[in-house]
Design brief:
mainly alpha, globular
Length: 79
Protein backbone atom coordinates (compact mmCIF):
# COMPACT_ATOMS: atom_id res chain seq x y z
CA UNK A 1 0.00 0.00 0.00
CA UNK A 2 1.49 3.35 -1.01
CA UNK A 3 1.58 6.39 1.24
CA UNK A 4 -1.11 8.08 -0.82
CA UNK A 5 -3.31 5.00 -0.63
CA UNK A 6 -2.90 4.86 3.14
CA UNK A 7 -3.69 8.55 3.38
CA UNK A 8 -6.79 8.06 1.22
CA UNK A 9 -7.94 5.20 3.44
CA UNK A 10 -7.46 7.32 6.54
CA UNK A 11 -9.36 10.26 5.03
CA UNK A 12 -12.21 7.92 4.11
CA UNK A 13 -12.30 6.54 7.65
CA UNK A 14 -12.55 10.04 9.12
CA UNK A 15 -15.67 10.72 7.05
CA UNK A 16 -17.72 8.59 9.45
CA UNK A 17 -16.53 10.49 12.51
CA UNK A 18 -19.80 10.71 14.38
CA UNK A 19 -20.36 6.94 14.23
CA UNK A 20 -16.99 5.74 15.47
CA UNK A 21 -14.80 8.81 16.20
CA UNK A 22 -12.36 7.62 13.50
CA UNK A 23 -10.66 5.22 15.83
CA UNK A 24 -7.42 3.44 15.15
CA UNK A 25 -6.25 1.15 17.89
CA UNK A 26 -5.01 3.41 20.67
CA UNK A 27 -7.72 5.90 21.70
CA UNK A 28 -10.85 7.53 20.32
CA UNK A 29 -9.84 9.93 17.57
CA UNK A 30 -6.30 8.63 17.15
CA UNK A 31 -6.65 8.05 13.42
CA UNK A 32 -8.13 11.49 12.83
CA UNK A 33 -5.35 13.07 14.87
CA UNK A 34 -2.69 11.16 12.95
CA UNK A 35 -4.11 12.30 9.62
CA UNK A 36 -4.60 15.98 10.37
CA UNK A 37 -1.26 16.44 12.12
CA UNK A 38 0.79 15.37 9.09
CA UNK A 39 3.25 17.88 7.71
CA UNK A 40 1.67 20.21 5.14
CA UNK A 41 4.22 18.82 2.66
CA UNK A 42 2.42 15.46 2.80
CA UNK A 43 -0.60 17.03 1.18
CA UNK A 44 1.38 18.50 -1.74
CA UNK A 45 0.69 15.54 -4.03
CA UNK A 46 -2.80 14.91 -2.69
CA UNK A 47 -4.81 18.05 -3.36
CA UNK A 48 -8.07 16.14 -3.81
CA UNK A 49 -7.62 14.28 -0.51
CA UNK A 50 -6.64 17.51 1.23
CA UNK A 51 -9.81 19.18 -0.04
CA UNK A 52 -11.97 16.22 1.01
CA UNK A 53 -10.43 16.16 4.49
CA UNK A 54 -10.89 19.91 4.91
CA UNK A 55 -14.60 19.48 4.12
CA UNK A 56 -14.89 16.59 6.57
CA UNK A 57 -13.15 18.22 9.51
CA UNK A 58 -14.84 21.58 9.00
CA UNK A 59 -18.18 19.88 9.76
CA UNK A 60 -17.10 18.02 12.89
CA UNK A 61 -18.77 19.02 16.14
CA UNK A 62 -18.38 18.15 19.80
CA UNK A 63 -14.74 17.16 19.48
CA UNK A 64 -12.53 16.47 22.46
CA UNK A 65 -10.42 19.59 23.09
CA UNK A 66 -7.16 18.01 21.89
CA UNK A 67 -8.78 17.10 18.57
CA UNK A 68 -10.45 20.49 18.21
CA UNK A 69 -7.02 22.09 18.53
CA UNK A 70 -5.58 19.72 15.89
CA UNK A 71 -8.47 20.52 13.53
CA UNK A 72 -8.04 24.26 14.02
CA UNK A 73 -4.30 24.00 13.29
CA UNK A 74 -4.97 21.89 10.19
CA UNK A 75 -7.50 24.35 8.82
CA UNK A 76 -5.37 27.39 9.71
CA UNK A 77 -2.31 25.89 8.00
CA UNK A 78 -4.16 25.99 4.72
CA UNK A 79 -3.43 22.33 4.18
Amino acid sequence: MTGTTRLASAVTATADWQADMAEGDMYAGDLLSAVITRSPAVWGDSAELRHELRLIVSRLVDLPSFLQQDVERFLAAGC
